[in-house]
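tl;dr need the bound structure. longer version: we got a ligand (flavin-adenine dinucleotide) that a collaborator sent over and nobodys looked at where it sits. i said id run it. heres the input, straight from their email, havent touched it
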Amino acid sequence: MGGSPLRILVVGAGIAGLAVARALRLAGFRPDVTEKLPPTELVDTGLYLPGNAARALRRLDLDGPVRPLGRVIHRQRFLDAAGAPLCEVDLDALWAGVGECRALSWAELHRVLLTGAGGAVRHGAELSAVELQPGRVSVGFTDGTSGEYDLVVGADGPRSAVRTLAALGGPPRPAGQVVYRSVVRGGPRIADWTALLGQRSGFLMVPIGAGRLYCYADEAGTVPPADPLTRLGELFGDYGGPVPDVLGTLDQVHVSVTEEIELGRWFHGRVLLIGDAAHATAPTLSQGAAMALEDAVVLAESLRAAGSVDAALLAYESRRRPRTRWVRDRTRDRNRTRDVPPALRDPLLRGRGGRIFQEHYRLLVDPL
Ligand SMILES: Cc1cc2nc3c(=O)[nH]c(=O)nc-3n(C[C@H](O)[C@H](O)[C@H](O)COP(=O)(O)OP(=O)(O)OC[C@H]3O[C@@H](n4cnc5c(N)ncnc54)[C@H](O)[C@@H]3O)c2cc1C
């Protein structure tokens, strides 16, 4: 159906929405994209992209603009809370033939995707109504505008309005962690993805270029604290390695709770969910952006190859289910190990940690 005058609306201009807009344009479609926030309100933070994200960016013909951004990451180092080595993963070996692992600023990737999507995003347009009709969808926005489409792609994140309006599912489930994110300048020099694992909490640092360090800390729980900086001091004040230096440079900290979406189906009539709206997980494996980019590639391929929209949606869901299920299940496996006391966990990680962590990505190395 590539090049057909199919009227497609993409709701949400995050990574999933912009990537699918790019993929659809490459396949000959001309989607409309709407985003409820004005462009200035997007929060910046860091992002770590494993090798399968690089492969999907290549398929979107965006590897060129992304290559100068951030830092290529060659190794994941896992340390105990005191800063003593537990195990390592050689990322070049793990993702050989797939793509480089890269850490960068979320805003930098977003800019590349926005340009790639053709730039035509209608900001400040919040979808508020969806009416399913045979073979089409009527939509309405909070600003009073409306439209009619052959396909609506809900890329509006874990708290998706499209999901609710199209009766595909309810609110997300808490996944069990409170997460603290910050980008610091002038912190210690760290070359690798480096995580210190404590008791039901952890502190991760990864360089994102231009002297910046992306810090990601988490603890078990579902309620964000009133004073994140004080809480970080309480949680990580006695950690070793580079953590004390990093804590000293923290200024602005974004706090969130992790959420999970598990749905029985991803489409209803001509409304389809992609990205976090369909399959959000806790970010433990850093696969959220990669899954969103892969979704975009596969949806455009499915629409181009199938004889009808309905056949394309079926083909899309059956191709994407196994990989997103794998990410969800391995994320849950990894999160369950948080309850294992370090005295039991750390000797195991010293012996086999590299192999265990590497195994979590096995299916994702395979072709899309
Ligand atoms: C703490 C944390 C850390 C993470 N770290 C990583 C990482 O290191 N690596 C990685 O790969 N992934 C990471 N992720 C996951 C990753 O950010 C997401 O999976 C990825 O960005 C895909 O998101 P999305 O585009 O589906 O949704 P979102 O990023 O949530 O985008 C949805 C967009 O839709 C808009 N929207 C919402 N409702 C409406 C509406 N009604 N009308 C119009 N627009 C609407 C929103 O404003 C938003 O712009 C992390 C996530 C979290 C929470």
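gonna send this back to them w/ a short note. Residues 11-17, 34-37, 47-49, 126-127, 155-157, 161, 179, 181, 256, 275-277, 283, 286-290, 292 surround flavin-adenine dinucleotide (CB under 6 Å).
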